[in-house]
Specification:
elongated; 82 residues; mainly alpha; 67% helix
């Protein structure tokens, strides 16, 4: 708009800028009616996320537990034999 000869900070420029901004943003906007989730959908998404996180930490915990449990029976080459 400035390159087309408009003067900044005039009332006409500000109103045109606001009009163009609103038109551009609503064309890209996502409306609440489209993205609104019901309570049941929110619960389902939460449970899927919770189970996924718990599964990851469960495998990490099992791996760490197995590593700790098996480390007691591991004999290093540096240890003296009796």
């Amino acid at each position: 708009m400035v390159n087309a000869g408009g003067t900044r900070f005039t009332p006409e420029f500000n109103s045109e800028l606001e009009t163009r901004f609103v038109e551009d943003m609503t064309s890209y906007g996502v409306y609440r009616e489209i993205t609104h989730l019901t309570a049941w959908e929110k619960i389902c998404l939460f449970t899927i996320t919770y189970r996924s996180v718990m599964l990851i930490f469960g495998f990490l915990g099992m791996g760490l537990g197995i590593a700790i449990a098996s480390s007691g029976s591991f004999n290093s080459d540096l240890e003296d034999e009796k």
